[in-house]
Known about the structure:
Keywords: Hydrolase, Metal-binding, Nuclease. GO terms for molecular function: 3'-5'-DNA exonuclease activity; metal ion binding. Belongs to the metallo-dependent hydrolases superfamily. TatD-type hydrolase family. It holds the Pfam family TatD_DNase. By secondary structure, the chain is of the alpha/beta class. The protein has one domain: Metal-dependent hydrolases (TIM Barrel). The protein has 10 helices and 12 strands. Helix 5 crosses helix 6 and helix 9 crosses helix 10. The protein is globular.
Amino acid sequence: MARYADIAVNLTDPMFQGxxxxxxxxxxxxxxxxxxxxxxxxxxxxxTGTSLSESREALEMAxxxxxxxxxxxxxxxxxxIDKHPQGADACFxxxxxxxxxxxxxxxxxxxxxxxxxxxxxxxxxxxxKETQLRHLPRLLLLSKRFRLPMFxxxxxxxxxVDLIKAMRDAGWVSPFTEGTGAGEKEWVGGVVHSFTGTTxxxxxxxxxxxxxxxxGCSLKTAENLETVKTIPLDRIMLETDAPWCSITTxxxxxxxxxxxxxxxxxxxxxKAEKWQEGQGVKGRMEPADVAVIAEVVARVxxxxxxxxxxxxxxxxxxxxx
Length: 321
């Protein structure tokens, strides 16, 4: 059986407790979701931490299910740092303590990446640009302090430009960057997840030695597909961003989906309220669906799916495990 790693699963999302838009639709089925993924060959799952509270929840979930997680503050959650009852410094101290406890003697060492961190100028109603930029350097330095690979978020071209600048200002210069003199010891690497950028961005990220995570959102438009073709296989990682980023009929990648008879699909009900035990829900991605993403990426690139699966597995192992 093929080995898959899903580097982005939001398993703390209420959908896996049967709650959609604040309404209870069915019984919690997280146990079944994880079991389906493992039976599909998904041997690695990285639960995303998007805030201090969710990083705590992700860590407890990783311990419970023998998985791994990130710890960090998503750019759209950076406003929460300032709202901490004891102030921003206390928020950072608690995040550091969470990581230290996990890495320390007797710790589980489940936190294997610093993230989700980065910039998002598309959703400034959640956190203003100034707030994101103010807290990003300190978050980047946590990656350096704990020597944890970065799990990065960048949604717009402007976000990309400022993220690269912030990384360089924080001293994150890849040893692959010619003439920097930076050594391997200083570079922990990272991945820009849920990538939706341009071919120019691909080149800059790859030249920096970063990996690129692909999911359904990375495969929406014809331009996206042309960009995906430019990403070297030794820089690709696969993800679902479950429960988000499903491939719909309006996506340019829809014709590249494998036939419905393929074993990579899981059974789904059309509506959440019609959920039955042992089935998924239409539109709700699960980590088992990383096999579908692998098929689409392979078809878009015109290569065997085994090549994509093996490359992504090796890339993920090198960065995180």
